[in-house]
Structure formats: C-alpha cells, structure tokens
Amino acid sequence: MSSSIPAQLVFAPGQSVADIDTSATPGFSGAKADAAPVQAERSARLTELQEMLYASHKAADDTRSVLLVLQGMDAAGKGGIVKHVVGAVNPMGVRYTSFGKPTEEELAHDYLWRIRKALPPAGHIGVFDRSHYEDVLIVRVHNLVAPEVWGARYDEINAFERELVDSGVRLVKVAMFISLDEQKRQLLERLDDPTKYWKYNPGDIDERLEWPKYQEAYQAVLDRTSTDYAPWHVVPCDKRWYSRLAVTELLIQALESLDLSWPAADFDVEAERKRLLDA
Amino acid sequence: MSSSIPAQLVFAPGQSVADIDTSATPGFSGAKADAAPVQAERSARLTELQEMLYASHKAADDTRSVLLVLQGMDAAGKGGIVKHVVGAVNPMGVRYTSFGKPTEEELAHDYLWRIRKALPPAGHIGVFDRSHYEDVLIVRVHNLVAPEVWGARYDEINAFERELVDSGVRLVKVAMFISLDEQKRQLLERLDDPTKYWKYNPGDIDERLEWPKYQEAYQAVLDRTSTDYAPWHVVPCDKRWYSRLAVTELLIQALESLDLSWPAADFDVEAERKRLLDA
C-alpha cells in the first residue's frame, strides 16, 4: 500500500514559503486519532524496509544508502521526528548527526567537510538534524560570510548532492514549517515544564525575530536546490502527528524506490542445515 | 523502584563459565508473559534517564557518559539487545558501533585505536557490539597475534578502562551466554527463514566448534578484567525476553548511579516568558 502523502509534499517551482498552510495535512484526510493506527502500521513497514536495506548491504554488497535531511526553525519538531520516526527503526542501521555551531576544527575546513564525514555508510539510513543548508540559512541571515561566498553555495550544494545521488545515496530532504503562533506555543511549553528547560535557549527568540529574513533564505533554498535528483519536501508541522506520519511516508517511499528484497542465500541451505545438525 | 537483577549478574571471583546456567533468570521469578509489562515500564524509565543524561550535558555541561559493551558468541542475541533495548531510547543520545574484522587502516594502528575513536561523547550512551575484548577472544582462539601480545592486553585493557572511568565514562560490561543447544536452534532458525539468510554465516559453525577454546578465553576475560570500577555482568541468554530485561536493568542501574536530575534553568523563566509573549 502506498500513500499519497509524499507526492503532495514535493516542492513545486514557484511555490511561496509565505503561503504554506502550516496546519494542513496534505494527503491525509483524517484527524489525530485516525493517524495513530496508521503511524503504527507504517512504522512497522519502515522498520522492515530498513532491515532489508541493511541486509542487502551485509549479504549482497548493495552499496546504497538513504540520507534524511531535516531542516526547520526552532521548535518545528526536528527532535520529535528523530525520537519517534527514526526511533522506530533499528539503531544498528541508523547514523544520526546533529550539526550545531561549527567547531574551530570544522571552521578550519570547507563547510562540506563535516558533512562528508557524517555521510551514512552503505546499507544505513543517515539522519542529518540540520545540515549543509545551515550554510545558506543561518549563515546568510547573520552575514557570517560574505554574500559572494554563501551565494556560490547553492550551486556547490547541487553539485555535491548530484555526486551523492550518483554514488548511491537516496536523499530525502525535508523542510519543516510551523506558524509563528505554534512556535510560540511550543516555546512556552518549554518554559512551563521544568523537565523541558534544557530545550529552551533564549537565543531562539532572537532567531524568531529574524523570521522574515529566514523566510527569504528558505525560499532561496527551495527555489535553487530543489532538483529532480534531490527534491525538497515541504512539510507542514503545526500538527506534530501529521509531520511524523509525513516523514515516515517519505522514508518509506525512498526505500521502496530502491526495489529492495531479502538477499538470497550465498551458501547451500540444505548443506548448512546438515552441517549444523551434526556440529 | 530498583530491580534485584543487576546485583545477581555481577561476575563473582572464581565463578566458572562452564557452570553458567544459561536458561536461568536471576532476579526475576516470573515467566515470559510476566516480563512483558515489566519490560515496557522499565524501557520507559530507561528512556527518561537517557534524556536526563543528554539534558545534563546539553544544559549543565555534565561530561559523563555511559558505555554498554556487549560480548557474546554468535546468536547470543546481541542484535536483539540493540534492536529492542537500545532501540527503545532516543537515537539522538545513542552512539552505536559494531566492531567486525579490523580494516587495513585499523590493523595499522594499536588495537585500541578504533575503540577510542568510537567512545561516546558526553551525555550519550555508547553501545559497542563486540569490542576491544575481541582482541583477547577471537584473537586468542585463532592465534592472530603472538601469545605474549594478547597476554599483555588484559592489563592494558584494565588500564584503559580505568582511564575511561576516571574521565566520567560509566562502563556496563555484558557477557552474554547461551547453551550450544540454544545456539543451534537460533542458527537453524536463520536457515529456515529466507528473511534471515542474511544473518547466517557458515563461519559461525566453525566458531561454534571452537567453543571449548572460547570458553577458556571468556574465562580469562572475566577472571582478569572484572574490576571494581568496571565489573563484568554474566547474562544468561537462552531466554531472550530475560536477557533484554536484564540489560535494560543494567543500563538503568548505571544511569541511576549518576544521580541525574533535570537541569535548572540558566535563564530567568519569567523574564523569558514575558519576552516570548511580546515577540
């Protein structure tokens, strides 16, 4: 069974970030309660596909991998995707990397240096919590490098991703959008609950105030780096149950596109059974 | 609520590997059906503690970490521990590494080189699926290096682990034991199910035939590297539901020993609330 969610999330040329309905649930007509059983069933499917990907590498030298790229403003729900969607699959086959403020060593290298180091090995699902896109988002908004430097990066990123795709990496790029109201609600929740203080960063408000500039920067990312080989998906995130289901479906679609199957035995099953029974 | 399982699993000086009752369930008197609700409840507790560890690093510069070391013969259930026990916690806070046959680059370095590279960052739970102990197990059984070389490693490993503990790593060393009968049953299962062929390796039978030598090598590991700062735990694994519960309890015990708490706000909560409502 395939879902109609993924097709509806692909960024369409000309689509405006300002017009995104962040409370919509494209491709899913039900409510939260309807989503729960679907999520459980689809998480199981994702888990099965992930194991097939892992098995295909392990036993049949399949060198492909999947890379989930999560971008979004603070409180858009990236952490929830990692915990609930990625958390549903076997950690053995997952490589998670969070890209924060670059270290001194990272800054002493090209911006893609730390990204390349974190690419998933064959047979794995890589998860980037923020990514090389920060180098044309926060870097652009705060003028951390000269405009001609970040300006050149869109093409560089496209070339980099072309190379990844050619080498067998299936990219799943997810741009997560919430409304400013929902963001405020989420941040307030962190202030209302002492077990969530650690997630709160006063700097988040400063970034929030830069939303118009971020909107412009996101628009440029979508306009200039949504390619046929690595399209962006625009995921409305006011309803967290929906964004989790949506990312689950995007990963399933990516894995299904690999036409995976359980590797055949590269040994004589009957002979091995006999050997084992005698051993 | 604490469990009596961990205390019963600590390796006792003089304890013989040959005498381990691999079908026992030390510290748990119930059956499989009784374990299910306990496992669910304890997994939730583990998840909470892991988040506190992560939060303590993130918001309060706590530099401690936990390192789970899994050792055991083929089909002892290491993969199941990773999938079900480690899989229950947030992947954001987990660093999983599987140590297979060393690569050429790894062989060109000291045996602890690849181990050090894989140590968990502060605030994380590291998981070693096999470990530096292979360098005194498979290496010893197959004479991959001279006896004086592997013979020196027990003390080296103790010194290495002393350093880790001093630097804030809480080690949880788990030796998983199954009977030869249960191992045969598990390996046969892989031959009976085409979705499990990829887990089957004809070499496993060769290793199985070396069990007497492995038993000796495991005995030496337990005798010589179970220290007061990094004791070994002997986990009977014929009943997989038990071994999963046992490792869950060992991780909970390790995390509880860190006396974690939710970090206090390092900002003025009321001032931030006001700022946010105005923003």
UniProtKB/TrEMBL annotation, chains A, B:
Keyword Hydrolase listed: no
Keyword Electron transport on entry: no
Record keywords, A-Z: Kinase, Transferase
Classification via InterPro entries: P-loop_NTPase (IPR027417), Polyphosphate_phosphotransfera (IPR016898), PPK2-rel_1 (IPR022300), PPK2-related (IPR022488)
Superkingdom field: Bacteria
Positions of the Polyphosphate kinase-2-related domain: 42-257
Pfam families recorded: PPK2
Recorded GO MF terms: kinase activity
Gene3D superfamilies for the chain: P-loop containing nucleotide triphosphate hydrolases
PANTHER family noted in UniProt: POLYPHOSPHATE:AMP PHOSPHOTRANSFERASE, POLYPHOSPHATE:AMP PHOSPHOTRANSFERASE-RELATED
Protein name, UniProt field: Polyphosphate kinase 2 family protein
